[in-house]
Design brief:
Elements: E1 4-9, E2 12-18, H1 23-26, E3 34-35, E4 50-54, H2 55-64, H3 69-86, H4 94-105, H5 115-131, H6 137-146, E5 153-157, H7 174-185, E6 192-195, H8 199-212, E7 220-222, H9 234-247, E8 253-257, E9 259-260, H10 261-272, E10 279-283, E11 293-296, E12 303-306, E13 312-313, H11 321-324, E14 334-340, E15 345-349, H12 352-370, H13 381-391
Helix pairs in contact: 2-6, 3-6, 4-5, 8-12, 8-13
């Protein structure tokens, strides 16, 4: 009888692999999520040896790899059709199959005495095993994740492989090995590359991502301007994007610019064009904080609450209300510059002193968060919105 690895979703196990494991599934995990191989278990559903992460974390990693709901839906429809021709008994529709799977994954181990539920598990497992022959394994894993509770724990259970006579050594860093092999194979599996207007934006966004989306480190990479001298403005970003397109760079990449007048003006011609499937061009997303933000009126010099989205949304404006609040309790104001005739609006920005202070304070906030010294009430909404926009750029 074979010794299997399993994909565990909550307390349910699927996709057995005899005397081995699926490398593409292992590559979705990080070595920090490894569960040590120990003697004994705390229960039948415990993963004694393997990897464990939340469904939400794995879904975001799949998204970063371009494995989106639309892609999975199309693959599932094709696979269900192929399976219907192969099996002698009827196959449920996609909607019915997903509904039954959600109901099963919402149950816990206490429900296993329910014969109807157990029979449903056997029926669904048969279908899922059949789909494995017609679907890319990560697409099938995404189906399971989308039907599971968001915070459900999902694992690659290697417990049965931790025995003598099996060629796979589950004590080895299988996840990192599998990910390294993927990166060497095809661009689809490479990290999502992000191009920014300059080194400061890249550095600061990466710092923020390590706080808001730490599970995406190694899956989303920001262009490293420190490796070679580079211009630092929106015009340089346009040149880089054009160079990537002309060179036929296969890696998926996102070019992202400020949500201000200069950024929209600088990217206008680029965003008006069609791009290869591997390329997305976008701006930092609109932010609620910026919809009524204090700005110095260019004519009167008075402070007015103004919607500065699209006109003054440089990266510093996404550092959080806490960073943008000065010692006297007021927000660092936007100052208006010259009129950009093509767009009919002025360019807005923080003063150079406020911009420098905001960057310094943000670095302190990010360092404190990574060190576990946060107060817990920091505002990360802006950075989180930017990273979400990047991850979902290919939806």
């Amino acid at each position: 009888m074979a010794d299997y690895s399993w994909v565990m979703v909550g307390e349910h196990r699927f996709l057995p692999a005899g005397y081995g494991y699926f490398p593409d599934v292992a590559a979705l995990f990080a070595e920090s999520e490894r569960q040590p191989c120990l003697d004994g278990t705390d229960g039948e559903s415990a993963i004694r040896c393997g990897y464990l992460a939340s469904a939400h974390v794995l879904l975001e990693r799949l998204h970063a790899l371009g494995i989106t709901p639309d892609r999975v839906r199309a693959d599932l429809d094709t696979a269900l059709g192929a399976l219907a021709e192969q099996l002698p008994h009827p196959i449920p529709s996609r909607a019915a199959f997903l509904d039954e799977l959600r109901a099963l994954l919402a149950s816990d181990g206490a429900s296993w005495d329910d014969k109807e539920l157990f029979d449903r598990y056997l029926d669904l497992s048969t279908i899922i095993d059949g789909l494995r022959g017609h679907m890319e394994i990560r697409n099938l894993v995404r189906v399971l994740l989308e039907c599971s509770p968001t915070q459900a724990l999902v694992g690659l259970d290697l417990s049965e492989l931790d025995r003598e006579g099996i060629s796979v050594d589950p004590h080895q860093p299988l996840a990192s090995q599998a990910r390294s092999e993927q990166l060497a194979e095809v661009a689809q599996n490479a990290s999502l590359l992000v191009l920014t207007e300059g080194s400061s934006d890249a550095d600061l966004l990466e710092l923020g991502m390590r706080v808001t989306h730490p599970h995406l480190v190694g899956f989303v990479n920001f262009m490293n301007f420190r490796l070679a001298p580079a211009e630092r403005n929106v015009a340089a970003l346009v040149k880089t994007v054009n160079a990537f397109i002309v060179a036929g760079v296969a890696n998926r990449f996102v070019a992202i610019a400020d949500n201000d007048t200069a950024g929209h003006d600088g990217l206008a011609k680029l965003t008006a064009r069609q791009h290869p499937p591997s390329c997305r061009v976008l701006h930092y997303p609109p932010l609620g904080l910026l919809a009524a933000y204090p700005a110095v009126d260019a004519d009167t010099g008075l402070l007015t609450r103004t919607d500065v989205n699209g006109a003054a949304g440089a990266l510093e404006m996404y550092f959080g209300r806490d960073v943008l609040t000065r010692g006297d309790g007021t927000l660092m104001p936007v100052h208006w510059g010259g009129l950009v005739s093509q767009l009919g609006r002025r360019q807005g920005a923080l003063s150079p002193a406020d911009k420098k202070a905001a960057q310094k304070q943000f670095r302190r906030k990010a360092a404190a968060a990574q060190a576990g010294n946060s107060a817990g009430d920091e505002d990360w909404e802006g950075i989180r919105a930017i990273i979400d926009a990047i991850v979902h750029a290919f939806d």
